[in-house]
């Protein structure tokens, strides 16, 4: 590959990484055609972009980005697939589904999610349990709404009881 072509590929990888909040580095060597198709389909359905990249080009693309990715560099060996995502836990859940089926691949090498680096396949459970930004916002909204709902519920039920008592007293007097 010519030097100019490499520069274009590096820039394309860097631009792709800038578009997403996080990415996973995954080992996919050894997947047969059927499992590769299943992985690509699952990625598409989960809104995860899957790319097979050369380690040296990915390394150079990471060097052009803001942030410290030095912990990821040792994992750039063998065949590497890049899973880019805006939902931090989506690829982890996808990979866990493959593991549940008894597959050893695709295997997690490392991940960069929410400005944190995770290295090793043993981090898969931790990554799967990360809540997305929208899930966290929903939790906060639910917590904020809870006291208001309790007050409204108490007022409503109290009003019903008071109405019942007044109704009973007015019938006794009459």
CATH topology of the largest domain: Alpha-Beta Plaits
Give the CATH architecture of the largest domain.
2-Layer Sandwich
Q: Number of helical segments? A: 6
Helix content: 55-70%
Described by strand count, sense and barrel closure, the largest sheet is: 5 strands, antiparallel
Distance between the termini: 99 Å
Can you give keywords for this protein?
Alpha-Beta Plaits; 174 residues; 6 helices; 5 strands; alpha+beta; elongated; five-stranded antiparallel beta sheet
Topology readout:
Blueprint: H1 3-19, E1 22-27, H2 33-45, E2 49-53, H3 55-64, E3 80-85, H4 90-100, E4 107-113, E5 116-119, H5 124-128, H6 133-173
Antiparallel strand pairs: 1-3, 1-4, 2-3, 4-5
Helix pairs in contact: 1-3
Could you characterize the architecture of this molecule?
This protein folds into 2 domains: 3-130, Alpha-Beta Plaits (2-Layer Sandwich), CATH 3.30.70; 131-174. With 174 residues, the protein is an alpha+beta fold. A 5-stranded antiparallel beta sheet has the order 2-3-1-4-5, with helices on both faces. The chain is elongated. The chain has helices at 3-19, 33-45, 55-64, 90-100, 124-128, 133-173, and strands at residues 22-27, 49-53, 80-85, 107-113, 116-119.
Question: Could you write a compact summary of the structure shown?
Answer:
The chain is built from 6 helices and 5 strands. With 174 residues, it is α+β, with helices and mostly antiparallel strands.
